[in-house]
Predict the 3D structure of the following.
Amino acid sequence: MFKRLFGLGQNPNRAIVDALYSQIVAASRQPCFYSIWQVPDTPLGRFEVLSLHVFLLMHRARDDAALKELVQELTDEFFRDVDHSLRELGIGDLGISKRMKRLARMFYGRAQSYGQALDAGDDEALAVALARNVRPDSDVWPGAHGLADYVVKAHGLLKEQDARHLLGGEITFPQAGLEKHPV
């Protein structure tokens, strides 16, 4: 009770997490993903692009102790948002747990494969991983290389961003569609 009365129970990172998350959501809603690169404009397609942007920040922060707590809180916010979205789609309490576990496995599996490709500088492996995850329904997805180029560009841009800016709630992603492989 005293914590609430005196504001001691509030999360000091809440405003920063909210600011970063809203910028990540805005970056993931760039029309190029859905119109030019043909990511399905469905709940699962939007999950793929949003989780890709969350991954990019996680990957940037992995060797920066100052960012670890903030990124964990941001990842928690991402999963709260996914849970909320599933509930808005009409999925009941009994189905939420199972779906959330599946989506968490998907997210962390993607983070591992995307991270390995980025660390190896293997753009082709990144494009293959993106195609496998984003468009499993398509044998050939022309947008895979454009999206991979975007991920590489975003990764480089995030590496250049000072941790103090990120800790202040400022993050910058590139404009999608300006890569060397637009389609």
Summary: Residues 1-8 have pLDDT under 50 and may be disordered.
